[in-house]
TrEMBL record:
The chain crosses the membrane at residues 12-32. GO terms for biological process: cell division. Keywords: Cell cycle, Cell division, Membrane, Transmembrane, Transmembrane helix. The keyword Cell membrane does not apply. Residues 315-325 have a biased composition (Basic and acidic residues). This is Cell division protein FtsQ. Residues 332-343 have a biased composition (Low complexity). Residues 279-360 are annotated as: Disordered. Signal peptide: none annotated. Residues 279-289 have a biased composition (Acidic residues).
């Protein structure tokens, strides 16, 4: 075979492939032009996210762009439709986190919507209400549906643009809402949390009637873990109805306030660390201004009573009257007895009771 024949054959193959490629490009351009020359036939809305979020529906999204005649794409040439403008309009809805819009081959306008997911519902002092999402953004309440998220009451302001103290408080609400919402036990146990005047949190659980003083919205997992341990190791042993207040704001301990001045009967507990303060000694400070102050612990009970020291009979008679007067003055000057406390310390293997209580 001559060189000329070989060259002509290669040239023919190259020309053939060039014609195929050119034809493909022509067809592609024609298809694009035909698509652009076509008109928008319909709108299809698809939602991304949780399926049980009914705050916004397909008809709500469609109405955002069809209520304005200048924006309504139905019947318009695809080439004349500004997709970026339509996305901007949909994104402005407070329940929409993100929107993507595109046309398919059937000349249908597709809108893919990612919704905002609320993590907490907040009530202000004035009674107004709104949701917060994971980014701390405000979401309005919907009349169509109420999200099952933790509820916080007593938020100090209605302003959407928050000052620094309120912004920090909102961030703690978001963190607590996410943690509680992701834990089935605490989601069932904690229905509503109250914000105190000093920007701390309290709640009354569904199981039990005690007020749980949580303190600041920090160390959330540690505090709930400590409370759960106290439920198992403390209240299950001494009873659920002995305390009016349980404070878990302190480091590595739970401080409880009893309902009355009587120390509840204690079972023999070998594994927990429930300690009861002496009813005659000053009660443990239930301060919520500090999460690091360690409350005082009751002194251990001695198993053998101290032997009384004998005194002369005459000396006792001479001092009896002055001693009675001192006791009366002391009782008159003594302040009213406060409710005794109980302290639970994780990791302590012993149980100490007040010195007036008999060892079980």
């Amino acid at each position: 075979m001559s060189k000329t024949t070989t060259i002509l054959k290669r040239l023919g193959v190259a020309v053939l492939w060039g014609m195929v490629l050119t034809g493909f490009v022509v067809l592609l351009v024609a298809a694009i032009q035909d698509k652009d020359a076509g008109k928008c036939k319909s709108i299809q809305v698809k939602f991304e996210g949780k399926d049980d979020n009914f705050f916004i529906e397909s008809k709500d999204i469609k109405s955002l762009i069809t209520k304005d005649k200048n924006l309504n794409p139905i019947g318009k040439s695809i080439a004349d439709i500004n997709i970026a403008e339509l996305e901007s309009v949909v994104d402005q809805d407070p329940w929409v986190k993100n929107a993507e819009i595109y046309f398919d081959n059937g000349q249908q306008l597709n809108i893919k919507v990612t919704q905002r997911e609320p993590v907490a519902r907040v009530f202000t002092f004035s009674g107004n209400s709104f949701y917060l999402d994971g980014a701390g953004e405000h979401i309005p309440v919907s009349s169509r549906y109420a999200a099952r998220v933790p509820v916080f009451t007593g938020f100090p302001t209605d302003a959407e643009k928050l000052q620094k103290p309120d912004s920090l408080l909102a961030a703690q609400i978001v963190d607590m809402g996410i943690y509680i919402g992701n834990d089935p036990f605490w989601m069932a146990q904690v229905e509503q949390l109250m914000i105190t005047d000093d920007r701390r949190f309290e709640f009354i659980p569904k199981l039990g009637d005690q007020v749980i003083a949580f303190g600041e919205g920090i160390d959330i997992e540690k505090k709930f873990t400590k409370l759960l341990a106290f439920y198992k190791e403390g209240l299950n042993k001494v009873g659920w109805n002995n305390y009016t207040r349980i404070n878990i704001a302190f480091e590595n301990e739970v401080v409880c306030t009893r309902k009355d001045g009587v120390v509840p009967l204690q079972p023999v507990i070998k594994t927990d660390s429930l300690k009861l303060a002496d009813a005659d000694e000053p009660p443990i400070a239930d301060s919520e201004d500090s999460t690091t102050a360690a409350p005082a612990i009751a002194k251990p009970v001695h198993t053998e009573p101290a032997k009384p020291v004998a005194k002369p009979v005459h000396a006792a008679k001479e001092k009896a009257k002055p001693q009675k007067e001192k006791v009366k003055k002391a009782k008159a000057a003594a302040p009213a007895k406060q409710q005794p406390k109980a302290v639970y310390k994780p990791g302590n293997k012993s149980v100490n009771t007040s010195k007036k209580q008999k060892t079980p």
